[in-house]
Structure formats: structure tokens, C-alpha cells
């Protein structure tokens, strides 16, 4: 998984290639731009992040002005690439939910791949409560559980807005992972079967027996063709490079092609429900 240092080094390597085409060494190139002698070396070796003006000047001086938009996109990706969860969650889970809601509101089409957890837009309040309880405990952030759950539920109103499209691909493991009490998971599966019938929603499930085209290393969300977000244990990556977005689009297509939909997807959910009932409630579900 790329981090800030690697992203800075990748940008520096690309700029080095442009500079080398001029046949000027680093010191000579710095002098041509009126920079200090070590600035070029620091940028090329990933020890200094260039500014937007630095990028423009570099591209102009090397005769590659047409690459400015792409280089600036890579710089922006570097700035957004790694945001620590503690920093993002320091105001509590509600604030993070509002941030995600704003991001979702700006996209007409969302593609979501999730190999381990039910996505937030599809969660029941009880399932969301279990997930956000874990977030609060692990990251030691302010305990605003009720507000965080409500904000996550409020996000789901977007599923009913005209002109929106949502495509979810989940692995069967995401349906089975006990991140909550078994009865909560059973209710969550009922919710999935219902929301999958919404006109705005396509819901695919990759059966456990399917031959996978790519190891499902992590989940991700593609917002139109503008942004990909990836959640790790410690951070959220925001990817905006066209090449990265295209890569995740291809991976999503591969997972989509492996998934089943409609009656077949509901059959997988029903099988998981039956297994949960047999394992945890052999005498029948508990009476309220």
C-alpha cells in the first residue's frame, strides 16, 4: 500500500526523468530556474514536496508543459493520499460520517467493493452500532456513538434520490463475518435482500466457491471517475490519479463479473441465514 514517502518518491522519479531529458545535471537545472543548488536533488529523491509553482516551472523548463495537469494531479494525490484515522476521527464518528456524506453527495455513480464488512450505506442501525463501537474503542476517539449511528443512517437517504446509481459488490465473507451479535447479522442480511431491490441499487455477491480473478486485499469506493477511497487499519487513502482510478475500475469490473445478482444473490444470503440459524438458534429464534 503506497504511503506518503513512496508517493513523494514516485513524483520525484517522474520529475527526474523530465530533467534528465534536458541533459542538465541537478545543479545546472536548479540554476536555470533560479533555485538553490540542493532543491532539485531533494525533490527528485523524495525529501521535499514541490509546490504547484515548482511543478509548472519544472515542466516548462523541460519542454513538457502538456504534462502539467497530470503532474499537478499526482501532487494533489500525494497531498490527499494518507490521512490518519485519528486525525479524521478526532472530532468523533459523527463528523467523519458527515464528511463521507458530502463526498457521496457529489457523485452520481458510486461503485463499492467490500470483502469483509457490509458497507455503511447498507447497514442497519444495530449493525452500524457494532461497527462504530469498534472504531471508537480501537482508535480511542470521542464516544459519540448515538450521533455517529444516526449520521450513518442519514447518509442512506441518498439511496432514494433520483438520478443516483449505486453498485455494490460484496464477498460472501462480508455476509458471514461476525462483527456483531448473530441476530444482528441476520437482521442485516434481511436488510440487504430488501435494499437490493431498489431501482437505484445493483447488489452483487461473490459466492465463497467462486474462482477469484484477484485477491480481495481490501475494499474500496469509486466516486464517478474522479476519486477512489481505500480504508486501511490506520488510514484512508484518497486516490485521484487517472491511472489509479482506471485500475480500480478494472478491478471492480473483474469482481462484478465474478458476482451473482438477483435471485442468485438472494440465494446466497438465504444460505448464510440458514447457517446462522442452525449454528446459533437451533431451537428457533429468541422470543422478544
UniProtKB/TrEMBL annotation:
Domain HTH cro/C1-type: 15-68
SUPFAM superfamilies in the record: lambda repressor-like DNA-binding domains
Protein name: Helix-turn-helix domain-containing protein
Source organism: Planomonospora corallina
Amino acid at each position: 500500500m503506497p504511503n506518503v514517502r513512496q508517493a513523494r518518491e514516485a513524483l520525484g522519479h517522474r520529475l527526474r526523468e523530465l530533467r534528465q531529458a534536458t541533459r542538465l545535471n541537478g545543479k545546472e537545472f536548479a540554476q536555470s530556474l533560479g533555485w538553490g543548488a540542493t532543491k532539485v536533488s531533494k525533490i527528485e529523491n523524495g525529501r521535499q514536496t514541490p509546490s504547484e509553482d515548482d511543478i509548472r516551472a519544472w515542466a516548462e523548463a523541460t519542454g513538457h508543459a502538456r504534462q502539467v495537469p497530470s503532474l499537478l494531479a499526482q501532487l494533489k494525490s500525494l497531498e490527499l493520499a494518507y490521512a490518519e484515522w485519528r486525525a479524521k476521527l478526532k472530532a468523533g464518528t459523527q463528523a467523519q460520517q458527515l464528511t463521507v456524506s458530502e463526498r457521496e453527495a457529489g457523485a452520481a455513480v458510486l461503485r463499492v467493493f467490500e470483502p469483509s464488512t457490509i458497507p455503511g450505506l447498507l447497514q442497519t442501525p444495530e449493525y452500524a452500532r457494532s461497527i462504530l463501537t469498534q472504531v471508537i474503542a480501537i482508535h480511542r476517539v470521542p464516544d459519540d456513538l448515538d450521533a455517529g449511528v444516526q449520521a450513518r443512517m442519514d447518509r442512506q437517504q441518498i439511496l432514494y434520490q433520483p438520478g443516483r446509481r449505486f453498485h455494490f459488490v460484496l464477498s460472501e465473507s462480508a455476509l458471514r463475518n461476525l462483527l456483531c451479535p448473530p441476530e444482528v447479522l441476520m437482521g442485516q442480511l434481511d436488510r440487504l435482500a430488501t435494499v437490493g431491490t431498489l431501482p437505484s441499487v445493483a447488489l452483487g455477491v461473490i459466492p465463497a466457491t467462486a474462482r477469484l480473478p484477484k485477491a480481495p486485499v481490501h475494499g474500496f469506493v469509486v466516486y464517478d471517475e474522479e476519486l477512489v477511497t481505500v480504508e486501511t487499519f490506520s488510514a484512508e487513502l484518497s486516490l485521484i490519479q487517472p491511472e489509479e482510478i482506471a485500475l480500480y475500475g478494472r478491478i471492480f469490473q473483474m469482481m462484478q463479473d465474478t458476482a451473482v445478482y438477483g435471485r442468485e444473490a438472494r440465494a446466497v444470503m438465504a444460505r448464510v441465514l440458514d447457517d446462522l440459524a442452525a449454528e446459533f438458534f437451533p431451537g428457533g429464534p429468541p422470543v422478544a
